[in-house]
Structure formats: structure tokens, C-alpha cells
Design goal:
Elements lengths: L1 E2 L5 E2 L21 E2 L13 E2 L3 H4 L2 E9 L4 H19 L4 E9 L2 E9 L6 H12 L14 E8 L2 H7 L13 E8 L8 H19 L5 E14 L2 E14 L5 H16 L10 E4 L9 H4 L2 E2 L4 H4 L20 H18 L5 E8 L8 E5 L8 H11 L4 H8 L6 H4 L18 H8 L1
Helix pairs in contact: 2-3, 5-6, 9-11, 9-13, 10-13
Length: 437
């Protein structure tokens, strides 16, 4: 065995280290690639000390969530409201909608083809109202702001590649790669840090809208840092919560209220036993917020929307896109597949990658990675996925029932880990378990 600068011992094989089966009993085997390893084959690549975070016995991981009044989330909601309005009138609608928000102004643009007549101006005002922007002192309010609509018709060059007459031959709406992920951290099979962060922001919205904490404004975001021991969530160590507020509340009043009425009410008490550090509005003041404080843009909270950084991301945003866009629908499908794989009991953690070419129905690649936690070979899992799931755009849309107005609800508090959505079902878990047995 030889020691390399990556810090792990390798066999003398010129291209591969010793591969130790991890399964449930050996979580920290050495299984991926890294060009920093000195044992490199002629083509210049080598095996890496893979998934370094998962190999460590103890570590801390942080994820972030934002509230529905965050400027980027306002834009996501407006874009998805346009998608919903189009799909409600015409399930075959094609939409790619982007929104920009700043002081006193909402700009809605993009491409659309639908038999419906969505009204972006009215939809934008409804989103602002529902998020709580009902006072001109916020720098934008739903009644007086300007809303500009510059939507236009979808390109025929794109349409001819996507629409093939027969639904089964429908091509992907664009090229791209998408990831789905699941793990056994929580009952939702989501990573604990992002699950907890979403719970805090949802609770903050509830107490604000109910009037329980009437001094809160619409904008806010939080971070949750979780300590992992032996690869399992052990305790929450730090919570950072920055929330917009009225000018007449003191920092002490705000901090006490947010810790007692929001944070502690949202999180599992058992995870708060280790002496949590609470950092509430660390700058001391957060009166100016929303689009008046920072401009907003659709698709700028990709990690909040997915797994909080615990899994990879293909780079494509979800909001503003109809389900023919595989950036959205295939990411939902990848989550559905990964969640069913973990729910089957054959692994504790799973990441699925799908990749597509524009105008082509079948994915160009499928990759299943279980971080060494599987009790069966990953190739067998991939074969089972190919046999059990229709991964074409038409198959995904049909299986998950995506051609309907469900998307504005996805635009806040994460697209995953919420049982109201079809891609969170675990109805294929038994079939996967049987297929690999």
C-alpha cells in the first residue's frame, strides 16, 4: 500500500485504489475520482478519496432557506404563477418565464405558447399581496408598483424539436443534466439541514401572517448548521435567522421572539439539546428588505430549491418552466427515483443523474450513486431503474401528472421533501427491492 497526498492509502495498482465495499457496515470506503491523487493512469485521471464529507466520522454541514418575501423567491413565485395560469387553461402550454424585481417595479418576460390568456400583471400583484407587500413603506407594494409584461411567442425552432405529434415521441425541451437525491436523515428522506431551515422559514411566515409577530416584514432567510456523528445528524449547533422587521421593535424583542416563537417551535427539541448558538439579525437591523433592499431574479435560489448543497445540481432552474423542460420535470423524476431507492431499504443515501439532448426523448445517460451505502451493486440498481421507470419527457409528465397548475406552491420552502407533490411518493420502493433481489 502507498500513501498519497490525498491522505488515503492505495493499492499498488497503477490506476485503481483498493475498493472496500461499504454497505451499511462500512460507510467510508474509497470509491471516486480525483486528479490530485498521485496514482494516475496515462490519460491523466485517478481515483479520488470520494465523497470526502461522507467519509468523515464527524462533521458540520450548513444549509440555507429563504422566505416567500425574499426578492428572488418573489420572482420564482410570479414566474410559476404564469406557468400555472397557462397550464390551467391549456395543459399543452409551453412556458419559459423570467421575472425581475426591484424598487417599485416588476418585469415579467420570456416565451410562451398557450391557448389560455394568462395576465402577468395581475398574477404579479397577487403574489406580492400574498407575500405581504401591502405597504408602500416596504419600497414595493402590490397596489402601486409598476408591472411590465414583455412575454412573447415561443421559438418555432424549439417547438419543432419538442413537439413530435405522438406524445410518446416528445423530445426534451432542452439539453441538460439533472440530479435527484434522497437520504435517511429525516422521515422525508431529505438532508436534515435544509429540512430544518425550511421549517424555520415556514414557521416565520405563519406567525407573521397570523399577526402573532405583527412586527415582522415579508423578507427573511436562515441557515442551520447540523453536526453529524458517524454519518448521522446528531445536533443543531448554530441557527442564523435574519428577518425583516418594523422600525419600532428593539433587537432584544425581535431576538427573543424569533428564538422562542419561531426557531424552537419549528425544530425537533432533541436536536437542540447541545447548546445551540442563535444568531438573530447579526447586523442588528433589517428594516429595508425585499426588492427595495436587493433586486430579485427568477432561478437564483437553486440550492434552496433542492437539497441545501448536500447533493449536486445540474445548473438549471425550475421556476417559470412548463414540464416539457427537463430542467424541471427530470429533476423531479430523479428525486422520485432516488427517494424510492432509499425507501426500498437497499441503501441509506442515493443520488441519481439524468441527462438529455434537446428534441430527443430517451435520456442520453443514467447514473446511480449510493455513496457506498448500498447492499447491492449500483449497476443492478441502474438496470432496475431502466426497467421500472419511463424516463422520457412524456413518460415523466404522465407518471407524475405534471401537466397541471401545481407550480406556484413549489416556489417556496423547497421543491422536495413535501408529501403534497407526486414525486415524493414511495410507491415504487417494493418493486425496486424485488428487482434487485
Amino acid at each position: 500500500m502507498s500513501q498519497n497526498k490525498c491522505g488515503y492509502k492505495h493499492s499498488g495498482h497503477p490506476t485503481k485504489p483498493t475498493l472496500v465495499p461499504r454497505g451499511h457496515g462500512n460507510r467510508f470506503a474509497h470509491t471516486s475520482w480525483d486528479a490530485s491523487c498521485s496514482l494516475l493512469p496515462a490519460h491523466g485521471y485517478g481515483y479520488l478519496c470520494a465523497d470526502y464529507m461522507q467519509q468523515r466520522d464527524s462533521y458540520r454541514f450548513t444549509s440555507e432557506s429563504v422566505g416567500e418575501g425574499h426578492p428572488d423567491k418573489l420572482c420564482d413565485q410570479i414566474s410559476d404563477a404564469v406557468v400555472d395560469a397557462a397550464l390551467a387553461a391549456d395543459p399543452a402550454s409551453r412556458v419559459a418565464c423570467e421575472t425581475f424585481a426591484t424598487t417599485g417595479l416588476i418585469l415579467v418576460g420570456g416565451e410562451i405558447r398557450t391557448h389560455g390568456s394568462p395576465d402577468p400583471q395581475q398574477l404579479a400583484r397577487e403574489v406580492l399581496r400574498d407575500a405581504g407587500y401591502d405597504d408602500p413603506s416596504f419600497g414595493i407594494d402590490y397596489q402601486t408598483c409598476a408591472v411590465l409584461n414583455v412575454m412573447h411567442a415561443q421559438s418555432q425552432d424549439i417547438a419543432q424539436g419538442v413537439d413530435r405529434g405522438e406524445a410518446a415521441k416528445q423530445g426534451a425541451g432542452d439539453q441538460g443534466l439533472m440530479f435527484g437525491y434522497a437520504c435517511s436523515d429525516t422521515p422525508h428522506l431529505m438532508p436534515a439541514p435544509i429540512d430544518f431551515a425550511h421549517a424555520i422559514m415556514l414557521r416565520a411566515a405563519q406567525v407573521r401572517k397570523s399577526g402573532q409577530l405583527e412586527f415582522l416584514g415579508p423578507d427573511g432567510k436562515c441557515q442551520v448548521s447540523v453536526r453529524y456523528d458517524s454519518g448521522r445528524p446528531a445536533a443543531i449547533e448554530t441557527v442564523v435567522l435574519s428577518h425583516q422587521h418594523r422600525d419600532d421593535v428593539t433587537h432584544k424583542q425581535l431576538s427573543e421572539a424569533l428564538v422562542e416563537e419561531v426557531i424552537k417551535q419549528a425544530l425537533p427539541p432533541a436536536m437542540l439539546d447541545g447548546g445551540v448558538e442563535y444568531l438573530v439579525n447579526p447586523t442588528g437591523r433589517f428594516v429595508v428588505g425585499g426588492p427595495h433592499g436587493d433586486s430579485g431574479l427568477t432561478g437564483r435560489k437553486l440550492i434552496v430549491d433542492t437539497y441545501g448543497g448536500k447533493a449536486r445540481h445540474g445548473g438549471g432552474a425550475f421556476s417559470g418552466k412548463d414540464p416539457s423542460k427537463v430542467d424541471r420535470s427530470a429533476a423531479y423524476m430523479a428525486r422520485y427515483v432516488a427517494k424510492n431507492i432509499v425507501a426500498s431499504g437497499i441503501c441509506d443515501e442515493c443520488e441519481v443523474q439524468l441527462a438529455y439532448a434537446i428534441g430527443v426523448a430517451e435520456p442520453v445517460s443514467l447514473y446511480v450513486h449510493t455513496f457506498g451505502s448500498a447492499t447491492v451493486a449500483e449497476q443492478r440498481i441502474e438496470d432496475a431503474v431502466r426497467d421500472l421507470f419511463d424516463l422520457t419527457p412524456a413518460g415523466i409528465i404522465a407518471l407524475l401528472d405534471l401537466a397541471r397548475p401545481i407550480y406556484r406552491r413549489t416556489a417556496t420552502y423547497g421543491h422536495f421533501g413535501r408529501g403534497e407533490f407526486s414525486w415524493e411518493r414511495t410507491d415504487r420502493a417494493a418493486a425496486i427491492r424485488e428487482a434487485v433481489s
